[in-house]
Specification:
By secondary structure, this protein is of the alpha/beta class. The protein contains 21 helices and 11 strands. Helix 1 crosses helix 2 and helix 20 packs antiparallel against helix 21.
Amino acid sequence: MIGVWFKKLKNKITENKNGVRVILYSLLHSVLVYYCLELGNKNPLLNGVLYTILNILTVFVLQSVVYLIVRRRWIASLLTGIPLTVLGIANYYTLVFRNSPISTQDIHNLGTTLSVIDSYSFPLNAFVLGILVFFVLQIAVTVELFKCEKKIKRSLKNTALKNACMVLFCILFMNMVYFAENPIKPRNTFVWSWEDSYYKYGYAASSIEVFQNSVNMIDRPKDYSEEKLAGIAKNAPVKETGEKTPDIILILNETFYDMRDLLDIKTDTEVMPFIDSQKLKGRAVVAGTGGGTNKSEYELLTSNSLQLMPAITPFNYLSFDNANSIVNYAKKLGYSTWGAHCAEALNYERGLVYPKLGFDSVLFREEFGEIQRYGERPYATDEFCFEKLLQDYEKMGDGPRLQYMLTIQNHGGWDLNDESMDTVHSLSDFGEHTALLNEFMSCVKKTDEAFKKLTEYFEKSDRDVIICMVGDHAPSFATEMVDSSSLDVTLALRSTPYVIWSNFDMGGKTVPQNVSMPFLVPMVLDLADMPLSLYYEQLVDLSDKAPVLTAFSLYKTADGEVHNYKDQTAESEDINIYFDMVYNNVADNANRIEKIFEPQRSIK
């Protein structure tokens, strides 16, 4: 009798010992996964004691959720460890190519990524090798987990109790750390540098914040009042606005960027002499750095700042039914509209979104036919795309015309041509980046030449035409060549060239040297003496007071002072009204005050 009792006691102790080992091995596995994620984020250091522990426990919670489904820890470790390791490697190369981490929004962008992935190379280095080493250690731990779990005798009562405790732990942990009113990990930690958040709080913790923001896609401005906006719309004095309707051509040029803004660089030939010679030019501050074409595209076409939508790719997340854009706005003024991009229609769901923005005619890769390339680069040249634009321009009828072209010539990578194809060469040695610079600047020179040729065509036209061309973002390698810890460098990395050209006299009007992307279209309409909506008027007025409204919580006034949106300044009221209008325009469709966004007519 006593022997039986001791045997049962021994078995109970052994079973509990194996249960404790399972938890410890699971935690060790979570540590290894955590390091894979951090190495993938190019962060070889710990995130501090507190946030290192919180990130490890976040991975453990994810593993535990999977365990509750599959009922085996060793299987749960495989089902979490393998995809998160792959994520770490993919995130590393994503940082190399676009300088922003993978987030939940990239699930929607997978088709876009796959369409250009063959243009890049993926070399092994210490970060990737480190991830692979930690993955091998994960497998070793998983084997030990398998051995321990085989020795555990299970009972329905004990399993139910353990699972209930695990569920309680997961809920309490996630609520206290992320979802409570005052969570341990602060909310809204993203400002002008993604590194500040990811390196301090960790990839897992920062990804939770991105997920939260993507669920709550549009931030409601503090003190937002529909009644206040309705009062503005009702009581706004009717101003004498322009009545002209010239043809409008908008060009968002892929990776069109001036490296002189970032580096002390001399070249053996001028990179963009024609654009440098223009009077109406400057820099547009964009939402992304080293990537983010769709963000720039959205801000250009809608004039809605992404400050209220910090964690999304707009075309993938937002509803564009009954959307306001310059395209729909122009149609209300009697314009025929045309939009094109020489890439697949599925990229960023443009095939679905462009028609909703108001384009009467849309063209994607298939409609372009056989394309002209620059050397071995697989993309259509700007000159080829502009020729297609002109061919269709002549078929658009007698009324006013709006055309929009998103180019692709300058897309990365920038090591695709033989060096003999380069027409621009840096006179300074930038190490491994010199060859990339030469090919990139050679591409930009071709953009300058193509733009000049486009304007020469319209110089001979008897129709009034205004053209605005702007870059979408800097090349991804630019971020590796500078220390982006300062605000000035960050702004330079996010500032792309813009140029405005017309074949008619605009009365000596000027434009700001630095301006945010949402301001460009209202500026073009104002320069062309066209009717303005209250929304566009608000932006034109703001461009004189605070021309740089960033999508990363800061703005710059006309005198160069930098402020946070939370600061109270002389410009705050006008800025707040603009953000209220953005929110009403995007998030509050059922209660949208249409008068704010409709064209106003001149007093006669």
